[in-house]
Amino acid sequence: MKIGFTTTIPVEIILAAGYTPVDMNNVFVTHPEAMRFIRRAERDGYPRSLCSWIKGIYGVVRELAPVDRLLIVTEGDCSNTLSMLETFQIRGAPPLLTFNYPHNRNAERLEAEMKRLAESLGTTLEEAERRRSLLQPLRRKLKVLDELTWQTGKVTGGENHLWLVSSSDFNGDPALFERNLDDFLVEARKRPVKEPALRLAFAGVPPIFSDLYDYLESRGASVVLNEMQRQFSMPNDSASLVEQHLQYTYPYDVFFRIEDLQREMEKRNAQGLIHYVQTFCHRGIEDIILRERIKVPALTLEGDAPGALDARTRLRIDVFLEMLERK
Ligand code: SF4
Fold this sequence. Notes:
The chain has two domains: 2-125, Rossmann fold (3-Layer(aba) Sandwich); 137-326, 3-Layer(aba) Sandwich (Rossmann fold). It has 15 helices and eight strands. The chain has helices at residues 11-16, 24-30, 34-43, 52-64, 79-91, 107-120, 125-152, 157-165, 174-190, 212-218, 227-232, 241-247, 254-267, 286-293, 311-326, and strands at residues 2-5, 20-23, 69-75, 96-100, 198-204, 221-226, 272-278, 298-303. The strands form two sheets. A four-stranded parallel beta sheet has the order 2-1-3-4. Strands 6-5-7-8 form a four-stranded parallel beta sheet, sandwiched between helices. Helix 14 links the parallel strand 7 and strand 8. It is globular and about 55 Å long. The mean pLDDT is 96. The chain binds iron/sulfur cluster.
C-alpha cells in the first residue's frame, strides 16, 4: 500500500504504519512525460497562472493513480494544496489525509498533529520513534555525502541535489536506498579532490529545470549547498521526531530559514547565491527578504515548466558568474 504526499512529512510515521512513502513531486518531475500532467490539470480547469508543481501533482494523481492514499500538507507548505484537496473531493482521488505544520513552530501542536496522523494510519508515535532510530544511520550517511560535496568536491552539486531530494521518501524503500548510497559513497570517495572556480549556494524549492547543475558545472561553478534538499534529509541531530521536524526549516517562517541558510553558506564559503523561485509561487515574495538579508551576491532565477534551461536564463546565469569571477 502506497501513500503519496505533497511535500516532506514525517516519513517515519508512514513507514511505521507499514506503508510505502511516495513523494508526488518526484513522481511528477522525473516522469518522461511530465508536461502531460500539467496539461491534464489545465484540461480539468486548473488556471494557466498556477504553479506547475501543483498542476503536476494533480495530473499525476488523475492520470496515473499511483498511490492508495494521498497525504496533503495543508499548513506549512502551500496554500494551493488546500484548493487542490477540494478539487479532489469533487473530481475523485484516493482517500485523503492531511497534515499541518504549525506556523509558530509550537512543539505541542506539532506533536498533536503527528499523533493524529499516526492514529489515522493505525500506528503510534512510539512506533514512529523506533523507525526514526532505524533511519538515523542512513540520515548520517546523507550528511557524509553532503560533506563530500562542500569539503572535497568529490560529489557534484547535481548528485547532491538528487540524493538529498530523494530522501523525502527514500525512493519508497529505505533499505535499498541505503545500499545504493553505500555503493555511491565508496565510488565517490575514490574520486580526486576538486576545488571549483566558483562556489555557489542554491536556495529555494528544488528547481524544475533538468540541466541547471550540469550547466553551472560546465561554466566552472559548483553548488556546494542545496538549501531545501539538505533540509529534506533532516541533517540536524535531534532527540525526537518532534524535535527533528522543529529544526526542519521549510514549513516555517522565512527568517528561521535564512538563519540556517546564512550559517551554512558561511561554513561552506559560498561566494554567490542562486535563489530559485517557481513561477506563480507565493514563496517568490520571500525573495525580497532573502536578498536583503543574505550577505553575498544573489541571482533570482525563475522556472515554470519541466525541461531544460531556456536561452534567457542561461544568459542571466552567465552574466552572474562573470560578475562573481570579476569580484
Ligand atoms: S513551488 Fe510554491 S506554489 Fe508551487 S507547490 Fe511549491 S510552495 Fe506551492
